[in-house]
Structure formats: C-alpha cells, structure tokens
Specification:
alpha/beta; single chain; 5 helices; 128 residues; five-stranded mixed β-sheet
C-alpha cells in the first residue's frame, strides 16, 4: 500500500495523478506495487520531467538527505538516461528501488519523446 505524505498539495496531486496513470496504462507495474508487503511511505517527490540527466539524479540525492530511514522518494523523469542512472545509484548505494517503470501518453499534438515518463520509487535504507 502506498501512503502519500507530501506537504505540498500540488506535489501530492501530481503524485496521485501519476500513480493513477501507472494503474491505467501499466498493469504489471501496478501488480508489482500491490505485491510489496511493506507499506510504501512517499515523503518526497522529485519532478524531473523535462530535465536532462544528471539533474533528476542530483535532485533525488538532495531529497534523500531529508528522508528518514524507511521513507521513499517518488521520481518522475523524461530523460531515459535518468532511469538508468537512478537504478545504478540505488544499486551502488544500497537503496531499495521499489518501482522502475514507464508510461507513454498518447497525445498527437506533442513530441513523443516528452510523452514518455519514467516512474521510480526509491526507499531509503540503512541510513543512506
């Protein structure tokens, strides 16, 4: 179960909408989230949409500094390199990558590249 503990109402709405988008467009990712036995407490959101790598990674590192052990950060990014870099960072740092998926929005009037959003949920472990 996912708990959103975000103080900013705009961030909370963005996270809610993004999680709903996953549910509607990526059932396998939703089943992965449903299969997590522990509660996921999202205490921070990094909106890296439109930012080139390594900015989403750097913003994620800053957000992780403010979290308590067991809390999670929800990262949204549009740069495919960010997905790779964040997964590698989690592996090297001993963080738990709860979700690593993407959604593709179907809009005809915008660039396809910007319509792909990568969703990552990273849980802080071992005081990292």
């Amino acid at each position: 179960m996912i708990q959103l503990n975000l103080s900013d109402s705009e961030q909370k709405q963005l996270a809610t909408d993004s999680l709903q988008q996953i549910k509607e467009t990526n059932p396998s990712a939703q089943s992965t989230l449903d299969g997590v036995s522990d509660e996921i407490n999202i205490a921070a959101l990094v909106d890296g949409r439109g930012l080139a790598c390594p900015m989403p990674l750097l913003k994620t590192k800053v957000a992780l500094r403010t979290l308590a052990e067991g809390d999670s950060v929800y990262v949204l990014a549009t740069d495919p390199n960010s997905q790779i870099d964040l997964a590698a960072f989690c592996q090297q740092s001993g963080l738990t990558l709860q979700l690593n998926t993407r959604t593709d929005a179907a809009t005809e009037d915008s660039l396809k590249k910007l319509d792909t959003i990568f969703h990552l949920i990273i849980t802080k472990t071992n005081g990292n």
